[in-house]
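Long-time lurker, first post. I've been practising inverse folding by hand and with some scripts of my own, and I keep getting stuck on stretches where the structure tokens seem ambiguous. Below is the full token string for one chain I'm working on. Before anyone asks, I'm not after the true native sequence, just a reasonable design that respects the backbone. If someone could post their per-position residues I'd love to compare against what I wrote down in my notebook.
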């Protein structure tokens, strides 16, 4: 899903030309695109060991969180206690999260990273360092859960997708990250306040738990607790914290593709957050809550069920935006589940993975023509003069002078502006 910035640019995650790992949601390329569809920055994460996929999350500091598959070979998997790899590839693609800082127009610096591979447990080989009782370690993932290979058939699978993270969200107030795993039917929260070194360990950060799971929900039988009645999620997507100022703020909401055998649902729940930023769990019991806070289930009369992707976001007015990916439909419903508005994109082979709704007041740019610094609806030498005055500090800055959208008005914008003048 693209993310719209307040200056009207978008962060656009998309598929690279030759991805090294192919499964549902494959990406590999992140672009920043301006209002005129010019690519002003792009970065590729697609190599022999890492492959971006599905989602990104723009952060308040200007950095971006990226989900990536991380290739592990048969020996590496066996060394961590994996018993069987179902795919003929005999590899496992684990998951990683990177925080990148955009640099220039085509590169980025990795400033923080987290790897699921550092937080695994198994109960089959006592000679390995990650051996333990699964139910005693809800903070770790059992490496023998699930099958390796998304879309497995009788012919096997042409990929080694194991966890299939499909969405990521960041909470700046908690400095925490939430992730959704389709294959595990669970969501996970991790601590972002750690250093990368602490994120690879079991201690450190605000939580004191390093990169271990602070919280997980949706399918507690994955860690040997609870029963079928605690299994709330199925193939879910679009996990996100409800924004401050919106009804339910701080709660989590997601689109559950397989809520029943026939229908999807949008589900909001309240995580058991404690004052110290950790999450309450009773000994021997699964993480709460034991039920949802709010639910809208699809039905034959209002069927927003989709087999892939799908989204749900709470709006400040209390309404909820729902996306039906397969049908390319977007719905807005009120708190009682009544339909308030809808949009459908027509055409063959059209899908809408997820969609958000933005208030016009969201934008912080000055209305006008980029380059028309003096607002006379003509781009000429007078605009060049005023742009130079902005650089010299003798005139108040305006976003209309920032032609390359790098948040700085400098000589590069003057050059671009002169080129516009000379071409008209």
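-- Answer (accepted) --
I ran through it position by position. Result:
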């Amino acid at each position: 899903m693209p993310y719209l910035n307040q200056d009207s640019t978008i962060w656009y995650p998309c598929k690279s030309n030759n991805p090294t790992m192919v499964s549902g949601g494959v990406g590999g390329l992140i672009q920043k695109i301006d209002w005129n569809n010019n690519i002003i920055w792009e970065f590729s994460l697609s190599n022999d060991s890492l492959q971006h996929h599905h989602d990104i999350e723009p952060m308040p500091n200007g950095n971006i969180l990226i989900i990536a598959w991380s290739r592990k070979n048969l020996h590496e998997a066996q060394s961590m206690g994996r018993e069987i790899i179902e795919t003929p590839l005999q590899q496992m693609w684990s998951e990683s999260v990177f925080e990148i800082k955009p640099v220039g127009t085509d590169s980025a610096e990795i400033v923080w990273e987290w790897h699921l591979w550092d937080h695994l447990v198994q109960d089959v080989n006592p000679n390995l360092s990650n051996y333990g009782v699964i139910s005693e370690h809800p903070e770790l993932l059992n490496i023998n859960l699930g099958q390796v290979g998304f879309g497995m058939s009788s012919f096997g699978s042409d990929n080694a997708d194991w966890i299939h993270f499909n969405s990521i969200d960041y909470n700046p107030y908690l400095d925490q990250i939430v992730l959704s795993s389709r294959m595990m039917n669970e969501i996970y929260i991790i601590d972002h306040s750690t250093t990368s070194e602490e994120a690879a360990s079991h201690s450190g950060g605000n939580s004191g738990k390093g990169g271990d799971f602070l919280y997980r929900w949706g399918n507690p039988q994955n860690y040997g607790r609870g029963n079928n009645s605690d299994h709330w999620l199925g193939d879910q997507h679009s996990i996100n914290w409800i924004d401050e100022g919106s009804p339910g703020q701080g709660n989590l909401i997601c689109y559950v593709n397989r809520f029943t055998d026939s229908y999807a649902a949008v589900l909001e729940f309240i995580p058991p957050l404690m004052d110290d930023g950790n999450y309450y769990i009773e000994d021997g019991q699964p993480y709460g809550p034991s039920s949802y806070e709010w639910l809208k289930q699809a039905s034959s009369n209002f069927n927003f069920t989709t087999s892939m992707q799908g989204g749900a976001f709470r709006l400040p007015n209390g309404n909820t935006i729902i996306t039906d990916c397969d049908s390319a439909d977007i719905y807005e419903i009120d708190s009682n589940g009544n339909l308030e508005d809808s949009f459908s994109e027509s055409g063959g082979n059209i899908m809408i993975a997820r969609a958000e709704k933005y208030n016009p007041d969201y934008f912080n740019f000055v209305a006008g023509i980029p380059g028309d610094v003096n607002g006379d609806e003509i781009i000429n030498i007078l605009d060049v003069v005023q742009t130079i005055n902005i650089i010299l500090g003798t005139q108040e800055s305006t976003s209309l002078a920032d032609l390359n959208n790098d948040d700085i008005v400098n000589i590069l914008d003057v050059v671009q502006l002169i080129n516009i003048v000379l071409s008209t």
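A couple of notes from the structure itself: The chain has a mean pLDDT of 94. The two ends are 36 Å apart (CA to CA). Happy to go over any region you disagree with.
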